[in-house]
Amino acid sequence: MKRRDFIKTLPLGVAAAAIPFSVGGLFSGKAFGRSPALDALLNSQTDTDRILVIINLQGGNDGLNTVIPFQDPIYDLKRTSVNGSVGYVTQAEKALLNPYQLRGNLALNPPLGTNFYNMFKDGKLAIVQNVGYDDPNLSHFRATDIWNSASDSEIVVSTGWMGRFLESQVPADYPLSLNSPDPLAIAIDYSTTLAFQGNRAVMASAVYDPSNYNQATYYADGTPPDTNAGHELSFVRSILSESDAYGQRFKSVFDKIGHPNATKNNVTYPSNNTLAMQLQKVAWCINAGLKTRVYFVTLGGFDTHVNQNSKDILAGQGLLHKYLGDAVSLFQQDIEAMGFGDNVIGMTYSEFGRRVNQNGSNGSDHGTAAPMFLFGKQINGEVYGNTPKLDTASLDANGNLVREFDFRQVYAALLTQWFGVDDSLRKAILNKSDFTLTADFKNATNGFQFPVNGASKMQNLILNPATGGVSQSQSSSFTLYQNQPNPFIGLTTIGFTLSEGGRVRLEVFDGRGSLISTVVDSYFGRGENKVVFDGRNLPSGTYYCRLDVGGKTQTRPMMLVK
Amino acid sequence: MDRRSFLRSVGVTAAGTAVAASSSSAADITSSPAAGGSPQFSSPLNNNRQRILSSDLSPWAPSSGQWDVHTINHLYRRAGFGATQAEIKAASGKTPSQVVDALLDDSIPMRPTIPPLPSYSDDKSQPPAWLHVSPLVYNNSTVEMNDYSFANMKIRSHWAVQMNQPEVMLREKMTLFWMNHFVVEAKKVYFPQMMYNFLTYFRQNPWGNFKKMVSDVTTMPAMLYYLDGILNVKQAPNENYAREVQELFTMGVYYKNDVTKPNYTQADVEAVAHALSGWTVDSGAPAPNVLPAFYDVTRHDASRQMIYDTTPRQYNLKAANAPNTTEKDLFDHMFEMRGDQIAWYICSKLYQFFVYHDISGDSEKAIIDAMAVTFKNSNWEIKPVLAELLKSAHFFDEANIGAGIKSPYDHLIGLLRTFDIPIDELGGGTLFNYAVGGSQVLLDPPNVKGWPGHHAWISTTTLPYRDVIQAALAGNTGTLPTLGGVDGYSVSNTYPSILLPDILTWAKQLTNFSGVFDDFVKEMATYLCAHVPSDTVLNTVVKNGYPAGYEWASLNDAIKIPILHILLTRIMSLADFQLS
Q1: For chain B, give me the number of helices (H) and strands (E)?
Q2: Using the beta-carbon criterion (under 8 Å), do A230 and B20 form an inter-chain contact?
Q3: Distance from CA of A75 to the nearest CA of B (A)
């Protein structure tokens, strides 16, 4: 779906209703049904009560100084320049790595290893080596978009992988009809990322601190005009209504457990560690019982063209690694002490690693493949994949590492094993017809396959995988829009779109559920359609408009005012 | 009935909700009887029809009544940060073209260009010492770092004061544009004198020759520091600037965002890095000319490079102190070989900044193509492009009025301009801390791409924060929320009296202040909002609990003031107010 199409559908789907969606309880009754997948997602049973914390390391973390192939003589050669070395090349430097040796030729960078080594030893940390994609892009922004959208390098996809996943689990008119008290995903930040962009709406809310949230008030108003300005108005209204609804929920949840503060945590998060401060808020949310399934946090500053200082815990990459190690390890302890150890896993990613050859500025330039970390009690702790091959013949034309894993293999493993996504939905999320992933896997014929070679255990990334069966909800094939105008006095227009042609029945019920009118019952082609409903002979009140396409239905309330 | 539950019921009681001026006109659809009968459809209908705009770049000729508060405010919001009632009245006596020409007038003197001294530091007497002290004097001790961070704060405060000056509004708007195009970050550049000189360059050249700008910026000390030009030497090339000057500053990764049309290769990036090697900063130069760009021939890679074509040449910059071995100026070559790409990319950014951020539609594409023609024909002068765009029928198309989302500074300076609140640097500093709460840190954009803007300005974190600032300004003070800072800068949670407007004086300038209450409320909303809220919301939400129309005129001023506070707070809390 093109971006314009998304914007076009947004106001109708999200913000056109004349009621704030916080009264979505209109839809909570059984009469109109709800996707079982949605129920599973929202009314979490043990099996589906699973939370993913995504940690974005912004700027391009130098993988070769993170999980270090320190006994490879080529490493010494390439990590040395006339102006010094960013690596561990002397015997004295290599000795520093001994306590953090993972296997054979690999060790964790000490500022990180101080905590990550113990997590690894306890089996709570997995390292996936050499993660990237084909035809890597060296622009921060394009590369970040590729990771967030889970697209091929040469294809621009305007939605995010998490956005597509979460959107597949909600009704088409989310968030208007969703009886979810909580955001499906929260970015502990001032804004969200492309990773959460769905086709119809953004599936995450940006909340700097849910425990201390100052909500806005949503004032309903008429349908915005179908102009550029009208579409922007709809966007702002949708954020206002989110803020209004979630703000009330946050308040009630956090009031119940008392205002969270340091004493509510089982560990002390250092206040000078920005990642730790974000993860502390995530821990509060989980402890407070929010049904949010995905949290997104960031640590920036990894663009180390100069003064990389990997070895220094006070500056550069070394300091960032210390932040990362401290924050994740404290969060893990906290979550386990809260009793959620089996419910939460985390994942780190960065848009790229860095050039194998360091530059002359005691730094390193943009590169390609790099390791990802996964952590949690439910993670099958191991090093997945091979030690990077640094010899020139093994590198690409720009002197960069060639990927071993495609990052979407990791996404696929998480979707399948952690969230229980079934094969067809996983392919829809990661392998849509508008971008082909099979090309990435030369011997694969059917979406993602895990390489047999060296990493077969990627299939067992999660110790107790989800039972599965999470599939596409009903929402993908058609959308019923809010009638315009609404409230209406006599005539009102009801619009809907079909992703493919088919038989459509549009019915209107009154507040007691009695059928008032079958407005249409016939064949419609794909695309947008509109019909007019005449309520001039009906009394004032709330009516429900139900669209039935092939046995699947969507329903919206309409207000008739005389 | 409390406010919240009242609002919930609006949808039901609002019988008068305006029918949207949408594409669903009766002509398209045959009415369907409530029961029985067979409805007819014209399907599929083009829901996008109004977004195909017929307006083009020809000068807008408003018909009678069109050049009003709504459209004049539009121009002043986009080409500046808003306007006072007096300025709007003055503009109504001129043509749109005359007003735009006045905004683009080069003869308007700049405001004082050197910020006053950091006042806390006794030993820095006239002239502004921090601007002319070699950074070598400082060595990262806490005191000196505090000096520098204080100086950067002064630059930010001073910047906000400039934005609030009506006569230089477009100059300042363009300065903000360029600072978010040729991005540098204070947290990396560190030296305030470099940041200040960089900022001042754009204030002096807001709509100059773009090709010259690119060349100038390439060797400006702030940029040499920020993208590691100072480290780009023959012996160890650093490609940081070489990549961004192509990806972000001139042509973009792809021509017209088409991924099948890449504008340059990794080999071009490396070749440009070689061509620019040797440009560094002379940190030993004596005052007052400290930290000038400096060409070190011993660090320059004079080998021939192939850039965009297969002819190897020695490239460098045509500068007074460049090597005489240079065979071609790098930017002469770049603008020659990639002229179409550069013209499209820069015009697309100007379009997104001044008109609408989504350029995927045919209308937007056609306008950008036309702007690119003007840009190339003008030999890379920005001013003709701006003049044509801001005077155009497309710019004033009703579909584009309100199609922007206010940035934190659009929002904050807009409040000051609307209510005619002058600020000094103390106020400018306070605004900086509010803008941090909106996630815009002047001099420190999030990364080399700058602030993404548009929808990224509005989130469930930043929007409620704006709400509180607005309420505080309207005199309806509450407690400002405590938010965490950004990049080490704090979010202010107090609202000083110096930023309070004289609400009564402002209101009394409105035509309907002593007239019909409904008309008065509507007039306020028209002044404040780029998209005017519906009568329904004005009647039920904004005026909720306030006097019936006939009472308003009879109230004395003392009683009107607290009512004005509430009315303004409510109008500004509508989504419509966040649009530009």
Answers
A1: 25, 4
A2: yes
A3: 18
Nearest CA in chain B to A364: B238
pLDDT tens readout for residues A466-486: 877 777 664 446 778 888 888
How many angstroms separate the CA of residue A13 from the nearest CA in chain B?
13
Inter-chain contact A139–B253, Cβ cutoff 8 Å? Answer: yes
pLDDT digits (tens, 9 = 90+) for A245-254: 788 888 878 8
Asked if the C-beta of A424 comes within 8 angstroms of chain B's C-beta atoms, the answer is no
- According to DSSP, the β-strands at A125-132 and A370-375 are antiparallel
Looking at residue B54, its pLDDT comes to 82
Q: For residue A186, what is the enclosing H or E element? A: strand A185-187
CB contact burial A235-244 (16+ within 10 A = b; e otherwise): bbbbbbbbbb
Can you tell me the distance from the alpha carbon of A86 to that of A317, in angstroms, rounded to the nearest whole number? Answer: 10
Minimum distance, in Å, between the CA of residue A68 and any CA atom of chain B: 23
CA distances from B382 to A240, B174, B249, B349 (A): 37, 10, 14, 12
| Residue A508 bridge partners (DSSP) | A517, A545
User: Cβ(A57)–Cβ(A350) under 8 Å?
Assistant: yes
pLDDT in tens, B461-511: 899 889 888 988 887 665 566 666 666 677 777 788 888 899 999 999 999
**Between chains, do A138 and B243 touch, taking CB under 8 Å as contact?**
yes
Contacts for A114-117: CB closer than 8 Å, 24+ residues apart: A114/A322, A114/A325, A115/A325, A115/A326, A115/A328, A115/A329, A116/A325, A116/A328, A116/A329, A116/A373
Residues 6 or more apart whose Cβ sits within 8 Å of residue B142: none
| Residue A437 contacts B where some CB pair is shorter than 8 Å | no
Burial status of residue B494 (CB atoms within 10 A of its CB: 0-12, 13-18, 19 or more): exposed
**In this complex, do A82 and B237 lie within 8 Å of one another by their Cβ atoms?**
no
The single residue listed with the structure tokens 């003055």 is: B90
pLDDT band at residue B51 under the 50/70/90 scheme:
low
Structure tokens at B515: 């007239």
Check: CB of residue B411 under 8 Å from CB of residue B160. Answer: no
Q: Which of residues 279-338 of A touch B (CB under 8 A)?
A: 300, 303, 305-306
Residue A41 has pLDDT above 80, yes or no: no
- Three-state SS for B389? helix
Q: Which of A134-148, A280-294, A537-551, B234-248 has the lowest mean pLDDT?
A: A537-551
Specify the range with the lowest mean pLDDT, choosing from A294-303, A550-559, B17-26, B222-231: B17-26
Q: Taking the CB of residue B544, how many other CB atoms lie within 10 A of it?
A: 14
pLDDT at position A125 is 94
Across the interface, do A220 and B50 touch by the CB < 8 Å criterion? no
Structure tokens at A169: 């689990």
Please give the ipTM for the structure prediction.
0.86
Helices (H), B325-424: 330-337, 339-354, 362-377, 383-390, 408-418
Residue B93: CB partners within 8 Å, gap ≥ 6? none
A·B CB contacts under 8 A: 309
As a whole number of angstroms, the distance between CA A394 and CA A402 comes to: 7
Residue A372: what residue type? M
Element at A254 (helix H, strand E): helix A228-256
Tell me the C-alpha distance between A281 and A266, whole Å. Answer: 13
Between B481 and B33, the more confident residue is: B481
Q: Encode B460-478: b = buried (16+ Cβ within 10 Å), e = exposed.
A: bbbbbbbbbbbbbbbbbbe
Higher per-residue pLDDT: B366 or A227: B366
Nearest CB neighbour to B51, from listed A58, A228, A527 = A228
Q: Which of B266, B400, B461 sits opposite A229 (nearest CB)?
A: B400
